[in-house]
Amino acid sequence: MNEKSIGDYVQVILPIVLTFAVLVMGVMVLVEMEIPRLAKKKKKLRAK
């Protein structure tokens, strides 16, 4: 592989990787916000 093809490859892959990372971060934040509510609901259902 020469320098140019590596550069082209990076230009294609980098935005995809960054987009994926942003999506993962967003999902993690949503999950962390949702888990306490779901846990509270489960505890309320289990409590007799």
Structure description:
The protein has one helix at 3-46. It has one helix and no strands. It has a domain at 24-48. The protein is mainly alpha-helical. The N and C termini lie far apart (66 Å).
Biggest sheet character:
none
% residues in beta strands: under 5%
By DSSP (H or I, 4+ residues per run), the number of helices equals 1
Query: Can you tell me the residue ranges where pLDDT is under 50 for at least 5 consecutive residues?
Result: none
Structural class: mainly alpha
Q: Note the run of SSEs as H and E.
A: H
| Residues in helices, as a percent range | over 70%
How much is the average pLDDT? 85
Strand elements, count: 0
The general outline is: rod-shaped
Radius of gyration (Å): 21 Å
Could you name the key traits of this structure?
48 residues, mainly alpha, 1 helix, rod-shaped
